[in-house]
């Protein structure tokens, strides 16, 4: 005998995702949990690194402040600051070349 067609959208979704049936069985489960301290630290470090790429002096400041206490964390803002500085100098030099010739 064939399976009956789903009566509503939620039945359709349950049938469609039957491999995740155990996930639907549990109740009162939060989908988004609080990030762990390690995850929060990495998120903040990523934001600081991105800002350091755009504003290299901020990355140099974080590198100087953290290089003794947190050498692994200080590495990424420092690298981003050097990369941002290199990119900005390259853009400056490339903008001057057409004016010289």
Task: Explain the layout of strands and helices.
Layout: H1 9-16, H2 21-25, H3 37-54, H4 56-66, H5 71-100
What tags apply to this protein structure?
101 residues
Task: Characterise the protein shown here.
The chain has helices spanning 9-16, 21-25, 37-54, 56-66, 71-100. It is mainly α. The protein has a domain at 35-100. The radius of gyration is 26 Å and the shape is flat. The model has no long low-confidence stretch (mean pLDDT 78).
Give the low-confidence spans.
none
The main sheet comes to: none
How many angstroms does the end-to-end distance come to? 83 Å
Counted beta strands: 0
Give a quick summary of the entry.
This protein is mostly helical and 101 residues long.
């Amino acid at each position: 005998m064939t399976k009956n067609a789903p009566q509503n959208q939620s039945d359709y979704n349950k049938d469609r995702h039957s491999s995740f049936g155990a996930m639907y069985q549990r109740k009162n489960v939060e989908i988004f949990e609080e990030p762990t301290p390690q995850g929060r630290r990495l998120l903040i470090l990523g934001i600081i690194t991105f800002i350091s790429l755009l504003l290299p002096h901020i990355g140099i400041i974080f590198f100087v402040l953290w290089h003794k206490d947190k050498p692994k964390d200080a590495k990424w803002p420092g690298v981003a600051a050097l990369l941002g500085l290199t990119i900005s100098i390259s853009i400056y030099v490339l903008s001057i070349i057409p004016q010289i010739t």
